[in-house]
# Entry
Amino acid sequence: MSYIKSRKHAPATLTALATLAMPLALHAEGADTTPTVKLPEVTITGKPASDFQAPARSASDKFTAPLLDTPKSVTVVPAEVISQTGAVSLTDALRTVPGITVGAAEGGNPVGDNLFIRGYNAQSDTYIDGIRDSGSQSREIFALEQIEVVKGPNSAYGGRSSAGGGVNLVSKTAKAENFSTGSVSLGSAKYHRATADINRMLGENAALRLNVMVHENDMPGRNEIGGHRWGIAPTVAFGLTGSTKVNLSYYHMQSSETPDTGLPFNNPFTSGPNVAKNGDGTPVSVPRDTFYGLVNRDFRDTKSDIGTIDVKHDFGNGMSFRNVTRYGRTSNDYVWTQPDDSKGNLALYGTVWRRANTRNVVAKSLGNTSALTGEFQAAGIKHSYTAGIEFGREEMDRGSYLFTPGTNNPKTNTFTCPTAGAETLYNCTTLVNPNPHDPWVYSRTLAPNMTNVVSNSRSAYVFDTMEFNPQWLLNVGLRWDSFRSTLNVPAYTLNGVNTAAQYAKTDSNFTNYQAGLVYKPSANSSIYVSYGTSSTPPGNDGGDGLDALSATVQNLKPQDSKNFELGTKWEVLARRLSLSAAIFKSKMNNARVTAPDGGTQNVGKKTVDGFEFGVSGNITNDWQIFGGYTWLDGRVDDNGFVNTGTTAKPVWSASPFNGNVFPATPKNSASLWTAYRVLPGLTVGGGLNYVSKVYASINNNKWAPAYTRFDAMASYEVNKHISLQLNVQNLTDKLYFDKVSSPHYAGVGPGRSATLTANFKY
# Structure
């Protein structure tokens, strides 16, 4: 960390900005003044109740400066916050990060961690220790050390990606010490969970660490929803005290559950005589536990296996080389009922069609990355750099299920449901009081139209932080990517109809960069301005999401995004508390939309203007805080064209949705978690999550209302080895909707629940 000797020659404009960014008292902290007055040394003792302080540096070696001096918005969710909030999944943990929303699954969008960051779909932008984690999944947290959320264009770091950002999961690895920790939890809604984390030295130069987890629970307030899962994650480290370190790790997790169906929207008609029968566009008003699925049909089974070899050699003089090889295989197999509202059944008949969304997918990936990291001085400028190359291969095989008998209403041979019950073979049910145990009888087979997608990528990158003097730094990054993907669907016959084979191929080369100028008014602060780009090629999702490869989009260029950001970061209160703020503007000028000729072209435009604030750390030895606020104004400036004529005689007119708000993008979102040690050994905590109105589609005619959710926690240290923790989630039992991106339904948030956890540490 560089410290400043004097600030008397700092440019006036930047000094003024620093003064506006923080109170004067905080502005002065950490900076030398003249004359120097020597004060008596004061020693502060006492152990904080917990530590919410973010690490000084990112776990990724692509960040060549401390987080304080990185000209980018980065939120680190530490292990203590994950533990105190009672999070047991990635989406649980990300609830503490404003600006992130979770999308609902749909026909083309799989059930899993469908994340939106700053309004942009970031489903394929999840990484484990810096390497892309492919495949649709619902990720656990039992083997994670922390979670890093990088906001803004992510392509300079991860290659093909969204304009919103990415999430990096930092794994637990073997350490040079002996310890054993674990937890056992019981709670409402049949909640049971146990974890263990054991680390042992193997001689003087190696160590073994083992993390295991078993979990089961129903969803509070949704009686038919629930499931179980288990996982194991061993790691072995060699060369802990030498110049060459080797980490071998393996991760396995599998789950079995009944997936949720959510509640349909009550606004299916956009024109015609039935528009007057529409509701206001919110989810239907029925009891929280209303479930439109079928218990003997709906299921979801997942499995993840990931093996990693991580080798690092330290050459000395600040230079090191690292090579990581990873193989992963994930599967996502499900049938779940979508309460389809698109046919007008709700408004016309008070019924719901039980649409069966199905998927059977296996995704395999092989990645290798090599990076050289170091420091050097040239012409009086200090350079901290990382340069590397990456290779990746992903293969996805995806299928769907056929049912006998089918899932249509046999009385109409369509999706319309004038009646419900046995005469519809229970494919139609009532809007109010549906019976999830209806005796739906069927046989299930895989459809013959299996889809295979193979993606290969090559990348080269370099990052450098140049320190001109203790006050001025320049961070730059450049990355080149080659992305090739092919889609194959063999010819098949279904119900006597022959379908020709499908083939599509995309071949994209793109370069992305970022640059950020950092001014440090004091050693404990920074002010920055940055610019970055991002590229999203066709088939970005590797065949397992919304951004699929097809003949329609195969020849299109990658969507390019640009982001401008002005921000400031401060470490105050003896550098125990981190504060950050940023304003930003993101532009996509070549979004894929329908063109005037009815084809798909890169002619659309999207913009996001935003502001965010973050806080993390210790206010006092007894008081910790973690949270933030994000304001987003995401607009579809040009959504292309729509057909206002007929299929036979199309008339392409400018989209009526121009100027609408991004789906799954709340204008305001905020979170706060705080904990206070009221007595020795006794800590109480609480938090809130606020999300404003969220639209479910680009039409902006279906939406989930704003909500505020409150949580509470209390923990007590019985002795140095045992502690107890009580969590109450959704304290007021608020009915809210936490997954919105499908135009058909909204995901229902969990009701009030309580869990008691016994933690062990030896």
About this structure: Residues 74-185+300-430+448-761 form a domain with the Maltoporin; Chain A fold (CATH 2.40.170.20).
